[in-house]
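Pipeline run #58 for the internal structure catalog. This entry was flagged by the ingest filter as a single-chain record with no existing model, so it goes straight to prediction. Upstream metadata was stripped on purpose; only the residue string is passed forward. Reviewer on rotation: M.T. Logging verbosity set to normal.
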Amino acid sequence: MKHLTLPRIIALFGYVSCLAGAGIVVAQTGPVQPVLVLPTGSPEMPHTRPDFPEDYSVPVDVFVNADGTVQNVVITESTGNLDADRVVADFMRQRRFLPAVNVRGEPMAGTVKVTVNLFKRGNKKVARVITKPPAFASEKERVSRMTCADFLWELDRMREGANIRDASYEVTPYMSALLYKEQRRISSEVEEKFWDSWPDTLKKVANRCEKQQTKMFFTDVLIPALDGTLPASELATAAQ
């Protein structure tokens, strides 16, 4: 795995040796779809473009090479304004990504679905990119087999490689929270409190993972951490 500190490597070596002796398959980091690099740390970016009569929300498929450059951009639903479509396509062609990785954590070409929102805030023109996550079923299975070291590898990659300040709604952390909600059957009454606490809880999860990197990320660390953010009475109600 890339970007692991020496303590992580030592911990993982012992863990892998133990699992190999037991004939158990070790959890992998991938596959992971491309991750948008944020120059300012925010998905909202100032943008110079012509004045449009209205705001636009444009779904786009972005084809990313194994080196993180954009190979092609396809508008999947036109705005009806060809100039706006062109601006969005040109904007995404200029983006850079962390490339997709395979199950061994190796870079590969990949595709990511995004929505580009063009709007004005005061006198400033803004482009905001929202990434669509992969299918929940496949991502759920991947999250469930990750070790803490796997999770930290991805978190470090997002923060250091993509300059993402708040990773709580990036694909892996967000899917982890959704999986917890599914298993605990969080009610709509509790959901707002759950999401309000999620960014801070993610930091606690990362800190705990740093100290126990051979543990299973979801079952051993994330579930206990999230259980601690909600009163037992609310969890009991949600699980009924």
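catalog note: Residues 1-32+134-240 form one domain.
catalog note: The chain has a mean pLDDT of 85.
status: ready for reviewer M.T.
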